[in-house]
Design a protein that fits this description.
Radius of gyration: 13 Å
Largest sheet: 4 strands, antiparallel
Order of helices and strands: HEEEEH
Distance between the termini: 34 Å
Number of helices: 2
Number of strands: 4
Number of domains: 1
Helix content: 25-40%
Shape: globular
Length: 87
């Protein structure tokens, strides 16, 4: 996968992931780093960061770059428990 392909994936995943955290957790997600899996493994991008006001509490968003959707969110229990169950 080329550097431009990776950059393109990141540019598409970033707003989707930020919006997902805002919609489902009512929080502002700040991305600090990322990893992209090789397509031969699976089509995943991992966005690492935190939510505003909790800079030392790490959040990870797993994003499928083929389907362009968030697969899962991991983080501290209090954050995961704050998910809006109606969404």
């Amino acid at each position: 996968m080329s550097t431009s392909d990776k950059q393109n994936i990141l540019e598409k995943a970033t707003p989707v992931s930020i919006q997902y955290i805002k919609e489902y957790y009512d929080a502002d997600f700040v991305i600090t780093s990322h990893d992209i899996d090789d397509p031969s493994v699976h089509s995943r991008l991992y966005l690492y960061g935190h939510v505003t006001g909790h800079e030392y509490e790490h959040i990870t968003v797993s994003y499928n770059y083929d389907t362009r959707e968030v697969i899962s969110v991991t983080g501290p229990g209090w954050f995961i428990d704050s998910r809006n169950p109606k969404k």
